[in-house]
């Protein structure tokens, strides 16, 4: 998948704990996207970031979810006080420029809340 | 509000025959259309794309057709191979650069 690295691949959290998902984009890509896939559903857009900026967070739940893409280091999707409904596959993607360029996805992080 | 519809959840074809996967959209602001292929427990893999200024794009066994007036696109795979068995997502985008995914079509290619 063109070098987008996500970790952890699998994460189990108890209700009320915090989940942090990390994403390193393809080298040279400055645009990062997070998507979530619930069972039997397509991927849903969550947030679009460039270095140090949130460009579009229209798909992010209003509470408990946040994302960042710092100047140095990976992008982080943070979910506070997780609930069972947060259990899903979270995919990160990156692109070198926008719009019209192909967006490459990572392998995904599977969050299970017990 | 489903902007992208892949109305057939599954498709089964014989190896060597043509697979045709359809996608309809409602948002006229979409101007770039991508198809992704996804295996279980893996991320989507880019397959082929088409710009709104074209009506056809071909890459090997894969061809995508776009009918802008009907807001319809289709992916043709010929000849189909067992390794093509996967979930296929139609994912248009526009100036805001975010992809909008359909629910996907599960393709099974029988040997």
Topology (elements, then pairings):
The complex is a heterodimer of chains A (114) and B (111).
Chain A: E1 5-7, E2 10-13, E3 19-24, E4 31-37, E5 43-50, E6 53-56, E7 65-68, E8 75-79, E9 88-95, E10 104-105, E11 109-113
Parallel strand pairs in A: 2-11
Antiparallel strand pairs in A: 1-3, 3-8, 4-5, 4-9, 5-6, 7-8, 9-10, 9-11
Chain B: E1 4-5, E2 10-14, E3 19-25, E4 32-38, E5 45-51, E6 56-59, E7 62-67, E8 72-77, E9 86-93, E10 105-110
Parallel strand pairs in B: 2-10
Antiparallel strand pairs in B: 1-3, 3-8, 4-5, 4-9, 6-7, 7-8, 9-10
By DSSP (H or I, 4+ residues per run), the number of helices of chain B equals: 0
Cα Rg of chain B: 13 Å
Number of helices of chain A: 0
Strand line-up of the largest beta sheet of chain B = 1-3-8-7-6
Order of helices and strands of chain A: EEEEEEEEEEE
Helix/strand order of chain B, N-terminal first: EEEEEEEEEE
Strand content of chain B: over 45%
| Separation of the first and last Cα atoms of chain A | 30 Å
**Major sheet description of chain A:** 7 strands, mixed
What best-fitting shape of chain B do the alpha-carbon axes yield? globular
Which structural class should the secondary elements of chain A be placed in?
A: mainly beta
C-alpha termini separation of chain B: 38 Å
